[in-house]
User: Fold this.
Amino acid sequence: MCGPWVAELVGSVWDAQTERIGELEPQVGCDSPPEAVHQMRVALRRQRSLLGLFAKLLTPETVELRLELGWLAAALGKVRDVDVLADRAESFYPGCAEIEVPLAMQRRAEVRELRVALSSSRRKALRALAPQAARDFPVALMASDRLRGLHRKLDQAVKRAPETGEWHQARIEGKRFRYGVEVMGCLFPEEARALAPALGRLQDLLGEHHDLAVFRAWLKGRGVDLEPVWDRAHAIESLLPAAYAEVRKPWRNLRGSADRLARKAWRQM
Assistant:
C-alpha cells in the first residue's frame, strides 16, 4: 500500500506538534516573548487543522478536543493580537506614546489572563488528550479528494474577495489548504516542497492584509491618521492576484501526483 494510514499519520503529526508546544509553553508562561506566543499558536492551529482534515475518520471525542484546542488558541491569540498591533505601530508610527502606552497596558492584562489559562486544571486535562481513529484508511486513497476540496474553497474565496472585500476568508482557506499540503505532503514530498514557497508568499500577504485591517480598527477610535495603513493595504491587494497565480502551476503538479497515487492505491486494495 502507498504511504501511511490515517492513524499512523495523525499520531505522528500530533506528537510532533505536542512536543513543539511543550518546548514553547515554559517561555510563554514566563515573559511571553512574541515569537514564542506566535509559534505555540501555530502549533495548536496545526493540530486543529489535522483534526479537521481527518474528522470523519476520528472518534466523536475529537470534536471536544478540537474545541479545547480552540479555547487555548484563543487565549494565546489575545496576546498575539496585541503583539501584531505593536509591530504595526512600530512600522507606521514609531515612538508614538498615544499608541504604545495603551498597547503595553493591554498586553500586560492579556498576558496575566494567559498565565491563568496555562496553569488551569482545564489546561492540565487538555495535555492528557489525543485523537483516536474510529476507522483507519490509507491516506493515499483520500489525499487527492481532500486537497482538491481545500483548494476549491481557497480558489472561490480568492476570486470573490476583490468584489466583496472579504480577504479574511481567503486567509482562512489559505491556511487550511497550506496545512493540508503540509500534512499530506509526505506522500509526494517533492511536489509539496515546490508548492510551499508560493503558498507561503500568498499567506504572508493575506496575513499582513488582515493585520492591517485589525490595526485600522484599533486606530479608528483614537483619531490617528489612517492613510499610511490604507495605502499599504491597497498595495497588498494589488499584489494578491499575482501571488495566487504563482500557486497554480505547482498545485497542478501536486494534484496530478495525488491523483496518480490514489489510482495506484486503489489497484493495490
